Amino acid sequence: WNDENLLNIASKVTSDCFIGHVRASTVGDVSLANCHPFTCDEYLFAHNGTIDNFEAIRKDLLFFLEDDCFHKIKGQTDSEHFFYLIYHILKKHDESMGLAIIAALKKLNHILTKRQLTHNFRINACLTNGKTLSAIRFKSNADQPTLSLYYSQQHSPKSVIIASERLSEMNEEWLEIPSNHLLTVDEEINITLTPIHI
User: Fold this and answer.
1) What CATH number corresponds to the domain at position 154?
2) If you ran DSSP here, which 8-state letter would residue 173 be given?
3) Which of 19, 83, 105, 158 is the most exposed place for a label (fewest CB within 10 A)?
4) Does residue 149 contact residue 181 with C-beta atoms inside 8 Å?
5) Residues 6+ away with beta carbon under 8 Å from 104
């Protein structure tokens, strides 16, 4: 949003699926390697939130990854590490994107439990392969507030917008994704909401 090239690039790019992310740096330096969205093969990923105790479990996460995923990590963020955890699960277990995200949440929970660390992570994330999209709104601790996440199909039944904040004053256009839910958008732009239990 603050890149002078964005206007020139945006007028030339067409796609059926866009993910945008404005980063407020909480983990890692401000650098291109730490900027969302992260990509690998056909997958594109963006994350909002924090994985508490990330530095304490980073080694455990890296140990779990196979070499091809391990060597692809270029930055320092919890977001990129979480993405490659999901990617590892996608490739190794041939899971759907939604199930891979949930499996990655379970793995985070397992590592934090094993290390006897607090489980205060809040994760909003979107993952797409360019054809379908999976988004989550998740918090690991019932006592903490959930980050906001909304979706809207008001502008066209052939499109869906997912946003951390409502993008218009018309509140009725925006539906809140319930806490601890997975939202899936299929190729026909059908939306499914599924509870997440870990």
Assistant:
1) 3.60.20.10
2) G
3) 158
4) no
5) 82, 85, 86, 89
pTM summary value? 0.86
pLDDT for 32-65, tens place per residue? Answer: 556 668 788 999 999 888 888 999 999 999 999 8
- Give the Cα separation of 182 and 180 in Å (integer): 7
Burial track 121-137 (b if 16+ CB lie within 10 A, e otherwise): bbbbbbbbeeebbbbbb
Q: Is residue 131 part of a domain?
A: yes
Count of domains forming the chain: 1
Say if 136 falls within a structural domain: yes
Task: Judge whether 45 and 38 are in contact, CB under 8 Å.
Answer: yes
Enclosing domain of residue 191: 30-195
Amino acid 63 reads F
- Looking at the domain assignment, is residue 154 inside a domain? yes
The pLDDT of 22-37, averaged and rounded, is 60
Straight-line distance from the first to the last Cα atom of the chain, in angstroms, rounded to the nearest whole number: 35
pLDDT in tens, 108-163: 999 999 999 887 888 999 999 999 999 999 999 888 888 999 999 877 778 898 98
Q: Does 149 map to a domain?
A: yes
